[in-house]
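re the bet — no i am not wrong, look at it urself. input seq straight from the record:
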Amino acid sequence: MNKNYEQGNSLWKDARRRLLRNRAAMASLIFLLLMAAGCFVLPLFPCIANPNATNLGNIAADCSWAHPFGTDQLGRDLLARVLYGGRISLLVGIVATIVSFIIGLSYGLISGYIGGRIDALMMRTVDVLFALPFIVLVIVFSLSIEAPSRELTNWVVNTTGWTRESVAPILGLVPLFIAIGALGWLTLARIVRAQCLEIKSQEYVLAARSLGLGHLRILFCHIAPNLLGTVIVYTTLAVPGIMLTESTLSFIGLGVRAPNSSWGTLIKEGADRMEATPELLIFPAIFFCLTLLALNFLGDGLRDALDPKAAKD
C-alpha cells in the first residue's frame, strides 16, 4: 500500500523562501553582488585607468568618454579611484566583521555556557570596554600594531618577489582590519551570551550532556548552530557600521594612506573641494550611501526571513 507523506521544510529552507519573496532584500543582494564585481573585477580590465596615475595637464576635467566621472585635482581618473576605493572599503567591512564575528561568538558562547562568577567577570570586562571611547581605542590599537604590519609587508615582498606597490595597499590595512574587528565584537558577545543562556537549558543540550559529550562539542555543535540565525542578521547589519568607522578614520587621516583611496578618503577630498568640483564628492558619496542602504535592506530581509515573528510584529 502506497502512502503519501508530506515532506516538511527545515528552518533554513523556509528562511530562504521568505528571503526570496522579499523584493527589497533580493534587489539589495543583486546590487551588492554587482558592486563587488565592479570593484574587484572591473579594475582588472585595461579600460579602467590606473587610479594613482597623475596627469597635471588634465586637472579637474569634466565627465567624458575617457573619464566618465571626470578627474580630480591631480588629474587622476575618478571612476578608477571610486572602484579601487570601494574595493578597500568593502574589504575593511567584510574582514573586520569576520574578525569581530569570531571573537564575539566565542566570547559570548563561553561566557553564557560557563555562567556563574566567570560569566559575571567576562561581562564586567565588556562593560568596561563599552565605557571607553571606541574611536580612540581603534586609533591607539591601530597605531600600536603599525610596525608589525610593515614587517609583514617586507616579509611578503622578500618571500614572494611581488612588488611593494601591489602588496602594500592591502597589507597596509591589516592594522585597520584587526583594530576595528578586535574592538567591534562587544555587542555581538552580549547577544550571543543572552541566546546561549536560553539555549543551554533546552532538552537536546541536556541530552547531549547526559551522553557524556565534551563541552566544546556541545558549544560548537549543538548550541552555536541554533543561534546562527541571530548572529548572521547582526553581522549583516554590522558591516555598514564598520564601513562607516573606516570612513571616519580615513576622513580624519588615520585610515587608508595616500595615494591609495577608500570611499572615506574620496569623500574627504571631495568635501574639501565641494564648491569648485562637486563631482569629487557626489560620485563616491552615491556609491557609499547606496552600498550602506543595500546592506541595511539585506540585513532587514534576513531578520524577517530567520525570525518570521519579528516580521509580523
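see?? Residues 78-114 form the longest helix (37 residues). told u. also The domain at 16-41+67-312 is CATH 1.10.3720.10 (MetI-like fold). so pay up
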